[in-house]
Design a protein that fits this description.
Structural class: mainly alpha
Coiled coil: 2-29
Number of strands: 0
Strand content: under 5%
Oligomer: single chain
Order of helices and strands: HHHHH
Number of helices: 5
Keywords: Coiled coil
Largest sheet: none
Shape: flat
Distance between the termini: 18 Å
Low-confidence stretches: none
């Protein structure tokens, strides 16, 4: 049976809701360990600074060329959820 984009988005929302409930209950630390500290984040940012800056530069260039998507928050959400779904299903 084939699923539609709306069904896929509904599944993603359900999964996110379940994660949010687990996060609120403090259950995620069992799976992922404690949340990173400020120092951990600083180390990660320093280690990934070049890649992050390159991504921001590329984004600025795309904006300057007018390469961006317009729409309401709901439309943009649906677009990126579908884009993520396609990327995920082609990788698995």
């Amino acid at each position: 049976m084939t699923t539609t984009a709306r069904q896929e988005i509904a599944k993603i929302r359900e999964a996110l809701d379940a994660l949010e409930r687990r996060l609120d209950a403090g259950d995620l630390e069992q799976d992922f360990g404690p949340a990173p500290t400020g120092a951990d984040l600083d180390v990660w940012l320093e280690r990934n600074q070049d890649a992050l800056m390159e991504t921001l530069r590329e984004g600025d260039e795309q904006l300057a060329r007018g390469e961006y998507r317009e729409g309401t928050a709901a439309e943009l959400h649906d677009y990126f959820a579908e884009k993520y779904r396609r990327r995920y299903t082609t990788q698995t």
